[in-house]
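WARN  no MSA supplied for this record, continuing single-sequence
INFO  ligand: nicotinamide-adenine-dinucleotide
INFO  echoing inputs
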Amino acid sequence: MSHVKDPSLAPQGRLNVEIAEKRMGALLALRERFKKEQPFKGLTIGMALHVTKETAVLVRTLTAGGAKVAITGCNPLSTQDDVAAALAEEQNVLVWAYKGESKEDYYRFLNAVIEAKPDITIDDGCDLVTEIHQKHPHLLSTMIGGCEETTTGIIRLKSMERDGALKTPMIAVNDNKTKHLMDNYYGTGQSTFDGILRSTNLLIAGKTVVVLGYGSCGKGVAMRAKGLGAQVVVTEVDNFAALQATMDGHRVLRMSEAAAIGDLFITVTGNLHVIRWEHMDAMKDGVVIANSGHFDCEIDLKALESKSRRKRRVRHYLDEYLMPSGRVLYVAGEGRLVNLASAEGHPSEVMSLSFMGQALACEYLVKNRGKLPVEVITLPPEIDDFIAGLQLETMGLRIDELTPEQKKYLASWQEGT
Ligand SMILES: NC(=O)c1ccc[n+]([C@@H]2O[C@H](COP(=O)([O-])OP(=O)(O)OC[C@H]3O[C@@H](n4cnc5c(N)ncnc54)[C@H](O)[C@@H]3O)[C@@H](O)[C@H]2O)c1
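INFO  complex generated
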């Protein structure tokens, strides 16, 4: 039986999914093919993904292809309750999710998905797959494989592979160009500000925005901060990424220097405690801190909770901490992915690309059942190219084709100046 917050929210959820579908034309085109070919007939797909309107479009695409879907969230604060209610009414779908899940429910729901005995998993952050490997390893011998959505999940999967712990093939959907160079960059770039603005209504122009981490997400966040009129400071631990940030026109500083000058801090490193007590203690009065990395471990909230003098919820997912110095500091989205905790996550258009990657990765697993190495696998580049082409087509855009002469030239080495 499904578990959602309020089944009566389903009509609004259905409307939101309808709007998302309007903006996810390429994924719908794939759905039409799946309807005819039924690639997932007889299979159960277990999912731990943010339960958003876009995810619902993916779920409908997989069930149109014959799958049964068992889904839960992948973050306690990212579920859209109306969408969860709408999904609970879909045929061949079981859903366990609500916004504000306790840790116990979060794991109870993951285990409900596991009890559905998934043939394929789709994870965002690798909690479902680690839970299966650690507590239900007997399922792994019959599982076809899994797909992972995000950078943090891939890092965990690669650690499993390195430790010899990985027991089923895993597709790194995040490694598609049409995923990390689109979703992480344009999606996180925009939706991080959507979340911060809904929580704070802060004017970004004229502010110093400190972006911690200049990877795919950080580049997008920094680009949008600059576009909104901020002075952008980047902190990094990677020489090349720091060099890129400098060449893109941002100021690169150590966090110990940036802490005292920033007005808004955004973590997107996928790493632990990149904002620590000594940084928070040095911050100006009224600064805002937000995280858009996968887990809520980037800001040392435990230290903040224990050392601050008072904590108040002052508005929509905005907590005010009174520091021993008398200054106040605001944390948006409880330090969880701010775009999903305070807003609705990425816009549908960009999720169409990511979820075409997920849908095609599931099909790839089925087509190559039993033949894939037990490793973290990147999809063939033709699939990435197909996704980009289909998206362009649904946007009504056409590109040039290589002439036979150009093809020959590009394949040759004899011709020089
Ligand atoms: N909010 C969202 O919707 C969303 C979307 C996609 C990815 N993510 C998550 O965002 C995080 C970042 O993803 P990405 O694709 O940009 O990863 P990435 O690997 O491309 O970039 C991370 C960057 O952070 C840097 N870094 C690591 N430790 C650091 C530290 N101590 N100080 C400063 N910089 C540091 C790394 O050098 C790297 O350049 C991951 O957790 C990912 O799962 C979130």
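The mean pLDDT is 98.
INFO  checksum written, moving to next record
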